[in-house]
Amino acid sequence: MAEVKLHGFWCSPFSYRVIWALKLKGVEYEYIEEDLLNKSELLLKYNPIYKKIPVLVHDGKPIAESLVILEYIEETWPENPLLPKDPYDRAMARFWIQYGVTKCADAFGAFYVASEEEEREKAAKDIVEVLKILEDQALGDKKFFGGDNINLVDISYGPSAYWLPAMGEAVGVKVLEPSTLPKLHAWANNFIEVPAIKENIPDYDKMLAYMRDAREKLGKN
Amino acid sequence: MADEVTLLDFWLSPFGMRVKIALAEKEVKYEYSEQNLMNRKSDLLLKMNPVYKKIPVLVHHGKPVCESLIILQYIDAVWKGKAPLLPSDPYERAQSMFWADFIDRKVHDISKKLWTTKGEELEAAKKDFFECLELLERELGEKPYFGGEALGYVDIALLPFSCGFYTYETIGDFSIEARFPKIRAWVDRCLKKESVAKSLAEPEKVHEFILETRKGLGFD
Known about the structure:
The complex is a heterodimer. Chain A has helices spanning 13-24, 41-46, 66-76, 87-112, 117-139, 152-171, 182-191, 195-198, 204-217, and strands at 4-8, 30-33, 55-58, 61-64. By secondary structure, chain A is an alpha+beta fold. In chain A, strands 2-1-3-4 form a four-stranded mixed beta sheet, with helices on one face. In chain A, helix 4 packs antiparallel against helix 5 (117-139) and helix 4 (87-112) runs parallel beside helix 6. Chain B is α+β, with helices and mostly antiparallel strands. In chain B, helix 1 runs parallel beside helix 3 (68-78) and helix 4 (90-116) runs antiparallel to helix 5. Chain B is globular and about 50 Å long. The relative contact order of chain B is 0.13.
């Protein structure tokens, strides 16, 4: 029988993207927790380029980079499709996933490391601007990016649904508010209620403590 | 019946060249629309790519596809009959996507530093560039192409950056052929293909453009 293993980290949203996809596809896998301060020989062997989690190992063959892993999972286990079949719709789904990598990642990164109040306010404002486009053009009036059910676009933005609010608490400025981003706010609440997500998410308080600790180490609090 | 394909592009863009190679490989007829990015962006470009306002944009039956790697995947899915760009095996596909993503993350920004910096910064950029090419050369190994026996997704993702090699070598005072003979041989092998030769910008023209730009930035 085919063997699937996932090297992950309990607090990493990228790790969870892969877990969610595997759960939605009903794929059995073995989870291996990596200590990021003491990475295993196996991880370094499987991902020599970036030395990061998550890494999916299927029949001994490693795949790195969460978004690459998501596409691999989609192709290897076609049941419960998580991307549209039509090439154009598929291209649009990938476009919005990529938007998260380019615009969102930069905005979130700046927010996470913001120290001065002015910096925090500006970073928060930038995030709202970037997310407004996502809300208007990608989500619209749909419940999820995937329509009635979640798909890879929702999964790729999972970190925004759960990690971003915690980041907001850690930084001291909330960003995903019903007043500024009503549809995305509703999406976030709906997303974390989906059973596959709800049952596979880190403890909020533990995660918040971890983020606060990490920011302190960076000298940001 | 014409498939109604238009490509919004800028002659110097490596991302646009990727799309040109792919369309040529697939023998797709299309209308080429040069966008002069030095002036005000055209209404067409702003309408077709409102989010990033960038080229390349592939317009198919009036609908725009943006982001070069996404465009390549789209082209591969729509024009399936000829010259597959991505492998059919899911694991091999994932490896191709990994390397194309690596190229996107590293090669463009690092190679830009090779002509926009000097002194210590330039030396640091050279070091990063060499590390990049070393990894890529190792990935290429003894294969004629990154795609194996035929030109593929990773080849197309990387090739356009070779237009700048002459410029980087001249400014940085190094030789890619000497340091990375397999990469050099791979570029020359790919240039023998018409789809590549007619899609890549001429290194001399790229060099001229970059030197002009450097003057404007205050170099030399």
